[in-house]
Design goal:
Helix content: 25-40%
Strand content: 15-25%
Number of domains: 2
Distance between the termini: 46 Å
Shape: globular
Order of helices and strands: EHEHHEEHHEHEHEHEEEHEEEHE
CATH topology of the largest domain: Rossmann fold
CATH architecture of the largest domain: 3-Layer(aba) Sandwich
Radius of gyration: 19 Å
CATH class of the largest domain: Alpha Beta
Largest sheet: 8 strands, mixed
Strand order of the largest sheet: 1-7-6-5-8-11-13-14
Length: 279
């Protein structure tokens, strides 16, 4: 049974629609994601032997999967070990809220201008999305579906909004709900908008995240919305991130505080993704 909390006075009639395989672009496999998780918990680097012990697999299995991760630029191989490339380990939610706050406020204000009163929308767990929730606090009669406790708190019990919070265990580092319960709950809805964050954007792979569960949730809500918006500040441009959200041509708008580099701008044009600058 799907666990969930509904923060509204009435329920929607549910419809079950499966998301399409078109959203399932290649991403690290289960073992590679486990290795990335070990590296994050270890502070960004670890010995091969230590990773193998943590995962109860052979060192050869670890090396084989690290080879793939190094090929896509997610990690750098060291003598006897490996580390996440550069400073690309994702920080916790509270830290991310403090990164580039003015840019995120500008982006949030622009996204709020795009969304009319009375709209239905998905809002994900990203820090930029939390700023967007603040910018939407004067909107009336929104129907909001989210897996973020921060977003739900900001928009519930205001202006005749209806806020639906996906259930399951809330993660300690960001207050987000993921997994089968959250996915099953979100699958009940079909919304006007999906507003998502991205940890990295590049011309080759499109819109990227660090976390596989977040990427799976993003793919689902992209498939269940009429208009898809990625909100990301300029620090995300050409950032090395391991997991693709999905087919970038499914994104209708990229909202940022400044124009992206030429290669990303050209890629957005080829994807038919409109770039909106939050001035």
């Amino acid at each position: 049974m799907v666990k969930y909390a509904i923060l509204s006075i009435s329920a929607l009639k549910t419809r079950h629609l499966y998301y399409t395989t078109a959203l399932m672009k290649p991403h690290p496999n289960h073992r590679q994601q486990e290795i990335l998780d070990v590296l994050h918990r270890a502070g960004g680097s670890a010995r091969i032997h230590s990773i193998a012990q943590s995962l109860d697999v052979s060192e050869e299995t670890v090396r084989r999967n690290i080879k793939h991760l190094a090929t896509v630029g997610a990690v750098e191989k060291l003598h006897g070990g490996v580390r996440i490339t550069g400073n690309e380990e994702e920080t916790n939610f509270q830290q991310r809220l403090g990164e580039h706050p003015e840019a995120k406020k500008r982006i949030a204000h622009k996204v709020a201008q795009i969304i009319p009163h009375g709209s239905s929308l998905f809002l994900d767990i990203g820090s930029t999305t939390a700023f967007i929730a603040d910018a939407l606090r004067d909107h009336q009669k929104l129907l909001v579906v989210t897996n973020s406790i921060a977003v739900a708190y900001k928009l519930a019990t205001r202006n005749n909004n209806r806020v639906f919070m996906a259930g399951g265990e809330l993660r300690s580092h960001d207050g987000g709900a993921f997994g089968a319960d959250a996915m099953g709950f979100a699958d009940n809805f079909q919304t006007d908008f999906a507003v998502l964050s991205a940890a990295g954007i590049n011309a080759t792979n499109g819109f990227m995240l660090f976390d596989l569960e977040e990427a799976r949730f993003s793919r689902l809500i992209i498939s269940k919305s009429a208009t898809r918006i990625i909100a990301a500040d300029a620090s995300k441009f050409n950032r090395v991130v391991p997991i693709t959200i999905g087919d970038p041509s499914l994104v209708d708008y990229l909202v940022s505080e400044t124009s992206p580099p030429d290669d990303i701008a050209s890629a957005c044009e080829s994807w038919s993704t409109e770039i909106i600058i939050a001035d």
